[in-house]
Amino acid sequence: MAHALHPGGTDGDFAGAACAQPVPAPAQQPQPEIARRLFTAYLHAGAHNARLLHEYHTVAAALADAGLEAIPLKGIHLATLVYPDPALRPMGDIDLLVRSTQVDTIGSLLLRLGYERFSPSRYDDPHAHHETYHATGRAPVELHWHLGQHGDQRTRPVDMEGLWARAVAAKIDGLPTRVLAPIDAFLYNCLHIYSHGFRVGLRRILDLREITRTATDALMAETLWTRAAAWRLTHPVAVLCEVLRLWLHVEFTLPIPRDAAFLAAVRMTQADLITIEDLSVDHVARLFGTQHWKAKAAAAFHQLFPPRSIMAARYGPVAQTPGLYGLYAWRVVQALWKYSPISPARRTIRQRARFLTWVDAE
After folding, report:
1. Is 331 exposed, middle or buried (0-12, 13-18, 19+ CB in 10 A)?
2. Contact 51, 139 (CB under 8 A)
3. What is the dihedral sign for C-alpha 51, 163, 98, 311?
4. Residues 266-295: pLDDT tens digits?
5. All residues at 6 or more sequence positions from 326 whose CB lies less than 8 Å from its CB, including other chains
6. Which residues lie closer than 8 Å to 100 by C-beta, 6 or more apart?
7. Tens digits of per-residue pLDDT, 49-92?
8. Residues 193/236, Cβ–Cβ less than 8 Å
9. Rg of the chain on CA atoms, in Å
10. Could you say which residues of the chain have pLDDT below 50?
């Protein structure tokens, strides 16, 4: 397992700059009812993951037969190669990183396997970075061709060619493949948490902990920080490393400025990680960090009137009909109410704007 994650020389050797410390054992066992529910969840995750791995095997084998390459991301990678037991890491879909030149070819292959594209192709949409394929009774398959494209301040200059070049050989469900190198995997998962406004639940933090646990010698602090800077991701990485230290006793030696703004960002990140996702507040809050009125207007227009492809992914087939304009009108009405001066959400926007201005900046 460790060899698949860290073949010698991939990201350099390091002894101790970024090392995971063992988490202390709980002082007492959970109550019987909690233990029963946890065990039930464990069994459900194991059964569900076994089905997803079977579906992954079908897709990966078809790609290999066609001479096409895909890098499994997130759940498929982490559950099989990083966690000590695949059932400890629930999965919801199959995420694959594919080369941008092969998106249409792999999409056509999925159609032949019985999948359907969830919405019209978004490859030509400058704000898109993935598209989803569904099939009745199967897990969704998401094809990612860029890891840093989001169409707003969250966009990051991820070196995709370098990421492909650093990918390391591994086997998943008996099939040869490649996975992200340890530092790239750590940074990508940080980027994923950041792109979702840090509102992703505790599972993603455990993902980061497990990556450090299984690849401690590969996570060289200097290289990690240098690559985070190249991706313009130092602030999100800094706060997530601090949360790892506070919650899970994972120690990093990184040049993190522990000033008031950083500590305030850490506190808000801790709260976000146990909050149900609601990115709409972040989209509005980011307008406060956009200085020029033309930029504000463009950002507001993009949030209220996203392209038809995004609306179709969110609202389904109705977005392909004249009903699309009714959806746009409904979004405007919702925004006017939700962010009016008397709305409770309005009271938190400026505080959120200060946090996002700091975490978006480099």
Report:
1. middle
2. yes
3. positive
4. 888 888 887 665 555 555 555 555 555 666
5. none
6. 123, 145, 146, 160
7. 999 999 999 999 999 999 999 999 999 999 999 999 999 999 98
8. yes
9. 21
10. 1-25
pTM: 0.77
CATH 3.30.460.40 residue ranges for the chain: 33-180
Q: What is the pLDDT of residue 7?
A: 31
- Predicted pLDDT at 136: 86
Q: Is 104 left (phi over 0), alpha (psi -120 to 50) or beta?
A: alpha
Phi, psi (degrees; rounded to nearest 5) at 141: -115, 125
In the block, which residue shows the tokens 């109550």?
31
Amino acid at 143: L
What is the torsion angle, in degrees rounded to the nearest 10, for the CA atoms of residue 90, residue 59, residue 180 and residue 275? Answer: -30
User: Tokens representing 204?
Assistant: 């993603």
Distances (CA, A) of 19 to 81, 163, 206: 19, 23, 15
CA distances from 151 to 169, 298, 306 (A): 32, 11, 11
| One-letter-per-residue 3-state SS of the chain | CHHHHCCCCCCCCCCCCEEECCCCCCCCCCCHHHHHHHHHHHHHHHHHHHHHHHHHHHHHHHHHHCCCCEEECHHHHHHHHCCCCHHHCCCCCEEEEECHHHHHHHHHHHHHCCCEECCCCCCCCCCCCEEEEECCCCCCEEEECCCCCCCCCCCCCCCHHHHHHHCEEEEECCEEEEECCHHHHHHHHHHHHHHCCCCCCHHHHHHHHHHHHHCCCCCCHHHHHHHHHHCCCHHHHHHHHHHHHHHHCEEECCCCCCCHHHHHHHHHHHHHCCCCCCHHHHHHHHHHCCCCHHHHHHHHHHHHCCCHHHHHHHHCHHHHCCHHHHHHHHHHHHHHHHCCCCCHHHHHHHHHHHHHHHHHCC
d(CA 179, CA 181): 6
CATH of 33-180, one of 3.40.50.1000, 3.30.300.20, 3.30.460.40, 3.40.50.720: 3.30.460.40
Which residues lie across from 144 on neighbouring strands?
97, 130
